[in-house]
Specification:
Elements lengths: L1 E5 L8 E5 L9 E10 L2 H8 L3 H7 L12 E9 L11 E5 L10 E5 L4 E3 L6 H4 L3 H14 L7 E5 L4 H12 L3 E6 L4 H6 L4 E4 L12 E6 L6 H4 L3 E9 L4 H10 L5 E4 L7 H16 L7 E5 L4 H9 L6 E5 L1
Parallel strand pairs: 8-9, 8-11, 9-10, 11-12, 12-13, 14-15
Antiparallel strand pairs: 1-2, 3-4, 3-6, 3-15, 4-5, 5-7
Helix pairs in contact: 1-10, 4-5, 4-9
Bound molecules: NADP nicotinamide-adenine-dinucleotide phosphate.
Length: about 325
Amino acid sequence: MKAAIFKTYGNKNSIVVEEVDNLIPKDHEILIKVKATTVTAVDAIFRSGKKFFPRMATGVISPKIKTLGTELSGVVEMTGKKVTGFEIGDEVITDSGTNYGAHAEYVLVTDKDPIVRKPKYLSFKEAGAISYGSLTALPFLRDHGKIKEGDRVLIIGASGSVGTYAVQLAKYYGAEVTAVCSSQNALLVKSLGADRIIDYRKTPIKDIHSRYDIIFDTVGKYSIAKTKHLLTPKGRYLTTILSLRSVFDMLRTGRSKQKSILALTGLRKNKEKTDDLRLITELFKNHKLRAVIDKEFTLDTINKAFDYVAQGHKTGNVVITF
Ligand SMILES: NC(=O)c1ccc[n+]([C@@H]2O[C@H](COP(=O)([O-])OP(=O)(O)OC[C@H]3O[C@@H](n4cnc5c(N)ncnc54)[C@H](OP(=O)(O)O)[C@@H]3O)[C@@H](O)[C@H]2O)c1
């Protein structure tokens, strides 16, 4: 089988597509023929090797993850002896999480990983671009933001993968959504349900004067210090970015009414992720959610996909189809 092998950090051609040994599922594993996966902002950060905390996870000297990629859709090719609930030929949506490996023709997941049947109404392409963004945005807004109907929510980075799902999920929970994005993405973000748009290139954050119950900084460009004037007395600033600053702010505001919260949603329990993936597919079914797809690449052109994602300006998701 062909797989994109993560050879070195930083180099634009550091991912090399090679023939590797076929995978054989162990008792509790499921072998999936990948139909669509994505190159995410996290994959691009990993490839760059430039950020301290991610580098600690991927290998200090050289990459210890052989193949990147987490979210995918595909078809069950083979199941381990003890797998129940999935059969050869089932169309599935899954996320390999910290086992990675989705940038390949085949991937192994376990029957404990978040895996659900792909509904027929979703294309493989769309289904391959669901879990990363939505399973980040959902726990941030629902569990950490405690979102409720009527909340005023500011979503920064509303045109990205996490942001496009965050806008739609915040609307699903009945919030009033102000989205921060550039004007070129305003129409798209409005079409996802945003009530108001602020163009971050024209209006600096310090010049916004409204108050919000939740600020979800999906791209981690600010901090509670820079957004405090925008928070209601019990408002929460949520950030996706692990840094000394975000950890310090979270500790410092832990007992305050206005909180800064960092969460690492990829490290949640598999059961929680599976339940949420079920909820997300239901929301797709009810047309409450849609996947935004920017560009499509193949496994052979995956470095180009990484180069594009690394620029930080994609809208929604960048998909690799097989
Ligand atoms: N903590 C966790 O568990 C967790 C999980 C997943 C991801 N993450 C992190 O979340 C971050 C976001 O991920 P993502 O996949 O959504 O990123 P993404 O899709 O790459 O975000 C790109 C988008 O962000 C917009 N953007 C850039 N700077 C902006 C600014 N100052 N204000 C508003 N919008 C801005 C860009 O719009 P323009 O082109 O108009 O600039 C672009 O559409 C990543 O850094 C990732 O590491 C964390």
